[in-house]
Design brief:
Blueprint lengths: L1 E5 L6 E5 L2 H25 L1 H9 L1 E2 L2 E2 L2 H23 L2 H21 L9 H24 L5
Antiparallel strand pairs: 1-2, 3-4
Length: about 150
Amino acid sequence: MTTTTTSTDATTATSTKIGPRQVVAALWVFVTLFYIYCDVFGLMYPPHLQEFLAGNVGGLVVDQQFLLNAAILMTIPMASVLISRIAPHRFARWESVAAGAIMTLVQIGSFSFGSAPTSFYIYCSIIEVAGTLAIVWVAARHWKVDA
């Protein structure tokens, strides 16, 4: 994962290595934004908005406990951005593997709750699962040295 950049001054060329720590952090930001935008887009779909306003989405009661659980769940990818950047190497690596695996399973499991998924939800889920699997892959296979 190396990129080469050349400055506007033709006499200076530098090579910048992008390490797994940076890649994993960037992937966490990417999937976190997808989680947020998928939820926002869901509220733009009138049937889902009506269900949210009624407090029941596909059989799931949207109450304070549900919202607290959702907030706790979303703490995982948001904290993982920070952890992957500043925590000690070994902890950051294995936290990303575990958190990526958990978020992959949660996203896949989300299809077993509520009503039939919309096409945009399926699309976002494919991207989210691919992103979290990429996190697991990079952290487990390529994060051999602290970068």
